[in-house]
Design a protein that fits this description.
With about 190 residues, this protein is α/β, with parallel strands linked by helices. The protein has seven helices and seven strands. It has one domain: Rossmann fold. The protein is about 35% helix and about 20% strand. Helix 1 packs antiparallel against helix 4 and helix 2 packs parallel to helix 3. The longest helix has 16 residues. The chain binds S-adenosylmethionine (SAM).
Length: about 190
């Protein structure tokens, strides 16, 4: 597809600048942003959950797509990152930006209550996966990125990635699409 003009969330550029200023390197790549935004838009009056806020880049994309009556809980255990996300996004009444371990937030969420999970950290992805998926409604999206095997990652991490993809592929409560673009996106829909 040809290059097109991207309409960015209002705060995106400022958050990106603040992210670069603190030298945070684990920021999400741009292409997943509009993808998350479109998925968020498909869940009108939705309840969304982001595990791993970082500085709020993808949070801003989720909010960009969400309807006025949707809500988003996002969690990160880094005070420095959360401070940036809160500074730029906390005035939006739809978002609750939580400084905590992801598993503590997962524990507080009722089963079958979430329409979309973007799992961008360890809990809810490499551990606490069953607990996170239990929160998801039937028909809800479970999205992860960084699923491409990379030569500059350790063999141990690459085999973790492969094990996670194999596990998700074999579950009979999920329909899975492995998308080989950007950092490698895996999109699952809960079916049972
Ligand atoms: C890949 S980054 C998230 C990037 C973010 N989604 C974005 O849009 O740029 C992963 C984040 O997970 C956070 N983190 C690491 N362990 C965590 C845990 N146990 N609970 C919550 N957050 C955690 C890190 O502080 C880091 O900000």
């Amino acid at each position: 597809m040809n290059e097109t003009v991207e309409i960015y969330p209002k705060q995106y550029e400022k958050i990106l600048k603040a992210t670069q200023d603190i030298g945070f390197r684990q920021l999400s790549e741009l292409p997943i942003g509009p993808f998350l935004s479109a998925l968020a838009a498909s869940k009108q009056s939705g309840s969304l959950l982001e595990l791993g806020t970082g500085t709020g880049l993808c949070t801003s994309w989720l909010l960009h797509g969400m309807s006025a009556d949707s809500t988003l809980i996002t969690v990160d255990n880094s005070a420095e990152n959360i401070e940036i996300a809160r500074h730029y996004l906390n005035s939006d009444p739809r978002v609750d930006i939580v400084l905590s371990d992801g598993e503590d937030v997962i524990d507080r969420i009722p089963p079958l209550s979430v329409d979309l999970i973007f799992a961008d950290t360890w809990p809810g992805k490499y551990y606490y996966l069953n607990e996170a998926l239990a929160c998801l409604k039937i028909g809800g999206f479970y999205i992860i990125d960084d699923m491409k095997i990379r030569a500059d990652w350790s063999e141990e991490h690459n085999s973790k990635i492969q094990r996670l993809i194999d596990h998700l592929s074999q579950r009979d409560d999920l329909a899975i699409a492995k998308l080989c673009w950007s950092t490698g996106i895996v999109m699952c829909v809960k079916v049972a």
